[in-house]
Amino acid sequence: MPKLTKRIIAALQSKPDGTDLFAWDSELRGFGVRMKPSGSASFLVQYRTARGQTRRYAFAKVGTLTPDEARTQAKRLLAEAETGSDPSAQRHEARQALTVAELCGQYLDALHAGLVMTRFRRPKRPSTILNDEGRVSRHILPLIGKRLTSDLTSATVQRMVDAIASGKTAGTFKTKTRGKAVVGGGGVTAARTVELLGGIWSWAEKRGLVSGPNPARGVEKHRGEASDRFLSPGEMAALGAVLREQEPLHLAATAALRLIALTGARREEICALRWCEVDESAGCLRLETTKTGRSIRPIGRSALRVLSTLPRGPSEWIFPNRDGRGSADLKKQIAGLFDAAGLTDARSHDLRRTFGSLAADEGYGDATIAELLGHARRGVTARHYIRRPDAALIAAADRVAERIAASLDGRKIGEVIALPGRKAV
Length: 425
Hints:
The chain contains 16 helices and nine strands.
C-alpha cells in the first residue's frame, strides 16, 4: 500500500463481505485507516503492548484531520507505546470510569445495607448515615458530582473545599425527617466533607472501583479552632431554672438534657437510651450502640434519681417517639431549652465538655475521665470479661454528677433540696 493521502483514502471502498477494510501507510509502520462496512473511516495505529499483545487504537475520524496531521499524531502514539503506554487500554478505563455522583451512589447504597464499616469495625449508625447523605447531596454532588473519578485530582478537591468553606453550598434544604435543614458553610463543614470524600475513595479502592492516589489526601483543610466552651456555675443555674420551669410542659426534653448534664453522655446516647440499658444495681449504663461501639458508662445517684421519675410505658425506649417504636428526636427541643436560658452559643456537647472539666477539677486523671465519658479504647479483657465498673469509677461519676446537680439547682454541694413530685431512689 502506498503512502496514505487524501486521494488514496477517498478511493477506498468498503468490503462487500461485511468486514472491516484496513489500509496501511507505507511511510509509517503501524499507521493506517480502518473503514467499516457502513463506509465510516477512522485513522488508527496498531502496536504491541509490553506483554506482546496486539492492539488497534482508532484516534480520529477521517475528515477531522488531514492524513499528514493524522500521521504526526500516530507517530506520537506509537512512540508512547514503545515506552510501555497502552492508549487503547487507557481509553477503555476512561469509558468504564465512574462519575463522582455514581461512586457516591454506590457508597450510599452500601451504607444503607450495613456494608460500610467504621474504624471500630461496625456499621455506621443511622445518624451518621444521615450526615453522610447530607454532605454528599449538599456539597459533593453540586461541586464535583459530574466529574469522572479517573480525572479527579487533589487540586479539584481543594477547590471544592475552598468553595464549601466560603459558603458557596450554604442554603436551606427540604428533608424527609425534619422538614428542612439550614446548611451553612465554613471550615468545619469543609473539613468533614473532604474527610468523607477520602473515606469514600478508600472504600471504593478496596473494591476495585477506583485506582490511583486518594485525591483527598494532602488537601488543605480550613478547620476552625477546637471548641472550648464550658458552662459556668451561673450558666448552669440559669439552665437549671429553665429545666424546672419547662419540666411540666416538656418532660422528655428536660429530663434528657438533665441526664446529659449529669452523665457527660452524648445527646444521641441519652435520647436513644433504652430501659434495658440502665443497670441501677451496678450504677451504670450498658449502652449497646455508641460512637465507639458497646460501652459501660458509670453514672451517679443524681442521674439515677432522674431516671426513677420518668414514666415507664410499654415502649423499650426511655424517650420514645409518638408510636413508641423508636426513640424521639429531641434535638430541637433541647436547643430551645438552651436558648430559653440565654445560652444561644451553647449546646448539649458543651455539657459533656463541662462534665469532663469538672472531673478534672476534682483531681481525676485522664484515664478516669476517658472512662466516664466513654472515650477509652478498652482491651480484650475489658470488652469480654468486665461486667461492671469498679467502685472508684462509680464514686467519680457520683461526685461529678453531684457537683453538676448542685449547679443546676443553684445550691452548694451537700445541700440537698427535695424536688417537687420526685421520689428518692
